[in-house]
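Appendix B, record 7
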Amino acid sequence: MRLIDLEVKNIGTFLEGKIQFITENDNMEKPPVTIITGENGTGKTLLIDAIRLLLYGESKILQRDIIREKDLFNIKSYIWLENQKRNIFLQKNGTNIIKENQVHDLINPRFYNKASIFKNHFIIEYWASKLSTDSFEIKSLVAPNPNDLYKDALTGIHQNIQVTQLITFFDYLKSSEDEKEKALGQKLYETLKEIFKLSLLNGELKSVARTTLTPIISQNGSDIPLANLSSGNLYLVQRMVSLLGRMYCLHVLEDSPLEQLCKAKGVLLIDEAENHLHPKWQKTFIQSIQKIFPNLQIILTTHSPFIVSSVSNAKVFVCEAKGDHTIIVDETENYTNKPIEEILISPVFGATYSFNQEISELLAKRKNAKNAQERKKIEKTLLEKNPQYFSYLDMDNIISQIFED
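Structure tokens (predicted):
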């Protein structure tokens, strides 16, 4: 499944707006990451909520009412599913609510146990910024139910107890006497270890204490239970283990080849991706997800310039306040593949003095330079001020010297 676009009318702060996630020039197999940013209160999360409402088909999945005008609203999207472009929408004109939304035959729990109109399943997941506060402790092994593939997929609920259940079950599965189950368990456990490696500083998943069913983490030379990890570490671990659980359920339902276990296609929605994360982890956050789950279409909201600058060839949309409403502006050309200092001093982030005032003003002048000669002059000054940091500005000269040598 792929989301091609999203159109909204009279949703939250938006009178109308559109986002094009995938264009004709993009690869449907490897769609670009979509980043939605903007100042507080401009409606970034509203757009994620609109997608959730559209795919689920019922408003009870949301924690708030996002409809601006009760008698005139519209949410619609083109999606790519089973090699077909399909139009889905949820709208109201006057007194009638019109829904053309067959996707919720799989997403909404009222429908997903019925015979599906689709031949194949897909991955759908939503990551909210709020961390769960329930216990990690379990009393017995619990096997994931493949028919729960879409349970809570768009609610943002990620319970700690479910993380422990998945880890302990995958650990148990790798010791099965059945060769097929054993191979699957080993693959899942290897992926778990990779998730922990990417999510922790100097840490790893060491083992599962089978007498207490407690995942044990080795970090900075000490062995600690999973529950003792920091909130930032837990955010990454919790979300990616949950996603691995969905990949397992889909693998069982589809009886797919083992090597395809984490390569299923689908959509991952992330709200306020930077929450709980140190800037170091913000810089590697998206790459870590893509390393484990390479075929997901990622759509996220963020306030973080580190995340914006960390993703190559991303599509970047800015929610911009205009009096009593908000508009969506495609700023891909101005933000994608740009160094962090240029993004920091951009209008959206407004960190004018990310360096000192002199260098910040030089960077702003470089960005607005009218020609190459003026830009090169400014870059020469930046190199003189800080040759180590701004060495990338002299890349052409560095490459020439390498070839001369």
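Remarks on this record: The first strand starts at residue 2 and ends at 3. DSSP finds twelve helices and 15 strands in the chain.
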